Structure formats: C-alpha cells, structure tokens
Amino acid sequence: MSQLPIMVIEHPFGARSREEIGAIAERLVDELVAGAVAHGDGGARTASNVDAQAARLELPADAWAFHRECLRRRWSDGLPMIPPTPERVARMLAASGQRADTVLASLAPAFGVTTLERVAINAVMAGCAPEHLPVLIAAIAAVADPAFNLQAVQTTTNPVTTWLIVNGPIVEELGINGAGNCLGQGNAANATIGRALRLVLQNIGGALPGDMDRASHGQPGKFLFCCAENEAQSPWPALHVERGLAAGDSAVTVVGASGTLNLNTHSKDADELLACIACSMAFPASNDYHYCGEPWLILSPEHAAVLAGAGYDKQAVKQRLWAQSTMPAGHFARRDYERTANARRAEFPNFSPDTEVPLARDASAIGIVVAGGPGTHSVYVPTFGETRAVTRRIDPPDRRGD
Description:
By secondary structure, the protein is α+β, with helices and mostly antiparallel strands. It has 14 helices and twelve strands. The strands form four sheets. The chain has a four-stranded mixed sheet with strand order 4-3-5-12. A four-stranded mixed sheet has the order 6-11-7-10. The chain has a two-stranded antiparallel ribbon with strand order 1-2.
C-alpha cells in the first residue's frame, strides 16, 4: 500500500463543525487531484503482485527475550506469546487442510494480505491449538464482510471490539464456554481464539494502538471477547439457526461490541423483567440511538426461562424491548441531536425534540443470545452503531493436526 496516494485528515475529526469539515474537504479535493495526476495508474499494488509469504526471522529462543522482542516490534497485545517456530506453524497449518499461501481476506485499515500462513503464525503466538484454526478462519471471513464495516471498527475513537459468538457442534468439540463465567477468564478456547483474532487485526490489519487504532479508552474486550451460546439451556432456536444456518452447522457470529453492562434483576414477572431491561438499555449517549445500531442482549438461562414460560418467543422479546427502549430526541445533547437527525433523516424526515427514537431501525435488528450460568444477571451489549453482525459457517478442515 506504500505507493498509494494518501490524504491526511487531522485527528480528531468527529466533533468538528460543518464549516471546518467543508474547508478540509476542499483542501483534500485539491490534494486528491494532484495525487492522482502524479501517480497515474501505477501506484496501487494488488494482492496478486504482493509477496504473500511470511518473512523468516531468527528470534531469541528464551521466553522472556522473545516476549521483549515482540513488545519492541509491536507484535504483542502486551502479554507473553508463544514463539511461532516453523514446527508449530506447520502443525497449525496441517489442521486447516489448505495451502499456506491461501489468501483469506484483505483486512482494513492496512489491507494486509491475510494469508493462511500469517493467520497461523498469529494463532500460534496467541496460544491456539491447531483445532481452533477453523473458528479463526470463519471469524476473519466475517469481519472482512463489508457489512461489519471493519475500516471504521478498527480506526474509531469508540471502544468497539470484535465479539465472537460460537454455535453448533464445534462448541462441545473444542470446549468453548457458553455457561458460567463465559465472558471471563479460565477457558483456553475462549481466551486463545479471541486473542488470536485481535492479533490478526493488529498485526495484519494494521490497527496498532495509538496509530491506526484511535480508541479514546478502549476496553478489556479488546484483548479478547469470545464465548459460545448456551444452546442446551436456551428455550429458543440457536443464534446461527435464527440467522439462516442448519442446527447441525457450526458457526461464528462477529459483533462490533462497545462494552458490556450487567443487568441484575430478580424479577420473575416477564413483563416487569422486559420493562426493566428496556429501561437499562436506554442511555442518551449511545451510538445505537445516534446511528441506528444493532444492540445485543445476553440473557441468562434464568431470565430466558422466565420469558419463555410466559409465552414469549425471541421475536416477541425483541419487539417489546425495541418499543420500550425508545428515547425522546430532546434528551440528546445538542450536537448529538444534530448528528442523530442527520444520520436517521430517512426514518424521521420531521425530526424534532419530541421524536421517539428507537435503538434500531426495527425490532429484528436487536440481537439476543442465551448464555451464562445460574443467577439473575443478564448482559446488555451496546454496539458501535455503524456496524452489523455477520455470521459465517465454520467449515470443517480436511484433516486435523495432532
């Protein structure tokens, strides 16, 4: 990408006035024309003429020395990593049944050529076992889908991160946790698969913290955010079935999650429970209101049982939450009111302070999964707003590694 003409927009950008944005746009148009004339047609490189083979380097064998070298080269998430020796990478690749130079995607913002070998290297460094690789491959396909809007997710000041939800037979096969503490520590599959995707997005996608990754604060989920759905304790069809796949398929859904909010209510009344959850979802600084988002809810098995016992299916739950979480536009700060009016003008051509603004365009855009262990806690997961969840089937490899 080094030969592409680059237009520079000074950071930060989001809070600038219309006049400032107009002046910047005029300057960039002049620069763009000048750059196009100067570079002609020969500036860009495509995946077909970029060397897709990973470089071979000699690095310290000592664990601490290797850790320090990874920190120096900015390959690391800050935690110690496993050295990707040729033998370890070969074992990882053998589990895929594909060629090492297979190009899986081109990941924003650096648009690095994401070959299977490069993914395998990052998976080894994250601590993945070879059998975890098919999940990672499917997750990469999901984030590369234009609907996910990876360019924005990787470069925004928002704390958004990639949340992986795994469904199907592979959950039991790999021991991915969707029960108690499924968003916490202690499970190797959850931890290493989630971590591996973060390393791929950083080391191949180019989202280095403080450089292309401009998150104001970030969040702990940017280290890793991966769980399974607790299908065994869900009263409703599994997420991947809801999204069009067969129950016997294995799948991963990737969500652009801005964080988590614990919802602790002991209510055993379905209508009261829904009203409490809907009220908790509604806060005026939410990107979901401003950009017509796709908010998510992780219902505990206990809360899901209360709702199903009262006759609610998943769509009915979504409809109630969507209707009861609207917010008068007058509750937004002035600039937030203006950006919401602009972003959602197709829905609300007569936008006013009295307009009841929903979190999403319609009830079906709210995502619901059942996960977690015993207890009266559920989790609200607001999103970046300008992103959509993507589900991909996890294709079984031709052969497994040792």
